[in-house]
Request: fold
Amino acid sequence: MDRVFDPADHLPDEMLERIRDRAADVDRENVFPTQDLAELAEAGYLRMLVPADRGGAGLSLAEAACLQQRLAAAAPATALAVNMHLVWTAVAKILRDRGDDAFAFLQHGAAAGEVYAFGISEPGNDLVLFGSDTDARPTDDGGVSFTGTKIFTSLAPVWTSLGLHGLDTTDPDRPTLVFAFMERVPAVVTHDDWDTLGMRGTQSRTTELHGAVAPVERVVRRVPLGGPPDPLQVAIFTAFEILVASVYTGISQRALEIASGAVARRTSKKSGAPRSDDPLVRARIGDMVISYDSLTLQLAALTRDVDERADHGARWFALLSGMKHRAVTSAQHIVDAAAIAAGGQSYRAGHELARLTRDVRAGVFHPSSPDSARQTAASSWLDSL
Reply:
């Protein structure tokens, strides 16, 4: 009998309401949502993508994307923080589904309660997965010592294992990107420097590595610099773009809910009719709905293709980065339109839409950037001519 997926089985309404109720305080106090993470971990949320035979729920990427939309509609910063852990568990799933079980340790770790952070972003490194300013130096026992700076390290206060990359230049003729995982050690320094416009609960702090060593058994891939994309890089890019797009799609959903509720409750002094009957208001809401529907449909289609191992060849990068770009830019449009529809109340600092207006601005800073997405899309068409 086929398994029936019910989002409420993994994110019950009562839990979501508690998470939503805490979101404003987390944002105002600029703290990590510790209670949210504890509840999610207890509910098995952090191991949703771990296969059942390794202690997880065995969900598909499409189901995980659905759940992240649901969580983001309650607390965007919590969803975005958890995203970075889910990216690694999604990578493990994508690779295992394709016959590569190098991340079995990560699946077992997630099932046992490990929290994985994403240590890829670096200041000024627009190559992202395909280059690094972090020095990766082999140790005598086969491990790798990392020295460099990582930024936007979400889950900074709580992670137990950091997935990262660096560049090994010990052979200058054959520089190699090294991907590995490490535990918290004294050589990993986390700065308390997360003071941002929005997404404050992610606590995506700067991480400095001062010769921090990943043991040999946690060095997962060595990729020649400048070569064709490795399946690991493709898996990371895929998981990251899909799950980030899911968060901003969830924000769009919530903005639409708030705006619709606001116009239904308000009455025009001019006509005495509900604001929801005003043709201009209906047009604005209708425009938001059209944008939102396009996000959910494209996200569902691409995640299904990943789960079913569809072959888009070289087009994958353009499809994924384009989806993420549309999710982010559409979310900004929807949130801004929702604030207009809801009226002046949304301009108050304590209003949920005011927070969403700030949270949604973070989207353009996640890879792929708007410029990168456009370049990738153009290349997918022009370079084949």
Remarks:
- The CA atoms of residues 103 and 213 lie 19 Å apart.
